């Protein structure tokens, strides 16, 4: 499968021209947590153990798990690349369609990968991978279902990158001994450039992962900003409310444009447009970038607009047929 990603706004600008682009191709919150000025000293010293432990403590409270099971990483992508190289190679099962980096990373590390449409088909795998809620269609599984799957596999990776608004879906409070949970920071808090994520796993696995990641895998500014943002529960509550309402609003605009809503999460929606290439082209001429997928010529994914001006432009573009 092609190893494509959203966020390639430079390619969009090259093809359709420069301008004021609205990038809805990634599912990253366009109303980011407001970063305040940092102490100048943080740019001149290496990240401290105290700063890392502070972030771990706040993150463990947010994830509702033991702090000994949390490790900050340089974005969830860092864990996706390293985990397949730290586990014994074997047969992996990846729930699809989903985030395509898993299958690519596993194959690159020497795993034999089987793509499955249902979690019931993943039993017996040396390593199973489930994204919950799923990207791009928003399918979701109760923690109890994933505990059952974990009991039928050697290891289970659960990617909860879009689960921050949905604590009811998280497996972190239950933490089976053979489960590795990945959490993103950049998506919900809208600070993808910080390159911060978390691996939640039994301490016995975190140790070799930390050794493989090397010293100072997360920058000092990322540690400080991450701790402050995760502690800001008022902002998080407001973000959940906004995106709960906004996702329904986007669905309504898409349906009025003749598209079929297929699902999604608080941060992105998926549509059957009939002709994804043509509809992406139509939006791109309005400098609105969307996400197509190599395995479907009908599906188009849109992130959530962040302010009144963006909503107006999206509504205008969708109404032009």
Automatic annotation (TrEMBL):
The keyword Magnesium does not apply. Transmembrane segments: none annotated. GO terms for molecular function: pyridoxal phosphate binding; threonine-phosphate decarboxylase activity. Its cofactor is pyridoxal 5'-phosphate. Its EC number is 4.1.1.81. It comes from the Bacteria. GO terms for biological process: cobalamin biosynthetic process. It is an enzyme of class 4 (lyase). It catalyses: O-phospho-L-threonine + H(+) = (R)-1-aminopropan-2-yl phosphate + CO2. Residues 37-318 form the Aminotransferase class I/classII large domain. The keyword Lyase applies. Pathway: Cofactor biosynthesis; adenosylcobalamin biosynthesis. Pfam families: Aminotran_1_2. Keywords: Cobalamin biosynthesis, Lyase, Pyridoxal phosphate. InterPro entries: Aminotransferase_I/II_large (IPR004839), CobD (IPR005860), NHTrfase_class1_PyrdxlP-BS (IPR004838), PyrdxlP-dep_Trfase (IPR015424), PyrdxlP-dep_Trfase_major (IPR015421), PyrdxlP-dep_Trfase_small (IPR015422). CDD domains: AAT_like. Decarboxylates L-threonine-O-3-phosphate to yield (R)-1-amino-2-propanol O-2-phosphate, the precursor for the linkage between the nucleotide loop and the corrin ring in cobalamin. This is threonine-phosphate decarboxylase. It comes from Paracoccus onubensis.
């Amino acid at each position: 499968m092609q190893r494509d990603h959203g966020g390639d706004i430079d390619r969009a600008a090259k093809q359709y021209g420069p301008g004021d682009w609205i990038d809805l191709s990634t599912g990253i919150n366009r109303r980011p947590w407001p970063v305040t000025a940092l102490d100048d000293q943080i740019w001149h010293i290496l990240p401290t153990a105290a700063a890392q432990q502070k972030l771990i403590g706040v993150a463990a409270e947010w994830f509702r798990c033991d702090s000994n099971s949390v490790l900050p990483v340089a974005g969830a992508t860092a864990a996706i690349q390293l985990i397949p190289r730290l586990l014994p190679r074997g047969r992996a099962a990846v729930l699809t369609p989903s985030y395509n980096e898993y299958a690519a990373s596993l194959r690159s590390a020497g795993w034999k990968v089987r793509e499955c449409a249902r979690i019931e088909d993943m039993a017996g795998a040396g390593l199973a991978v489930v994204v919950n809620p799923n990207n791009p269609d928003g399918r979701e599984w109760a923690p109890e279902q994933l505990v059952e799957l974990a009991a039928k596999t050697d290891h289970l990776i659960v990617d909860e990158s879009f689960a921050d608004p949905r604590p009811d879906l998280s497996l972190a409070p239950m933490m089976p001994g053979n489960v590795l949970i990945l959490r993103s920071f950049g998506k919900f808090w809208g600070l993808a450039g910080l390159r911060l994520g978390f691996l939640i796993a039994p301490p016995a696995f975190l140790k070799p992962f930390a050794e493989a990641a090397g010293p100072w895998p997360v920058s000092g500014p990322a540690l400080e900003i991450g701790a402050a943002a995760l502690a800001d529960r008022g902002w998080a509550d407001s973000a959940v409310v906004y995106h709960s309402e906004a996702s329904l609003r986007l669905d309504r605009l898409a349906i009025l444009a003749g598209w079929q809503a297929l699902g999604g999460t608080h941060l992105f929606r998926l549509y059957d447009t009939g002709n994804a290439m043509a509809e992406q082209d139509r939006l791109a001429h309005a400098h609105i970038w969307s996400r197509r997928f190599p395995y479907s010529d009908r599906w188009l994914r849109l992130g959530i607009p962040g302010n009144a001006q963006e909503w107006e432009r999206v509504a205008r573009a969708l109404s032009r047929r």
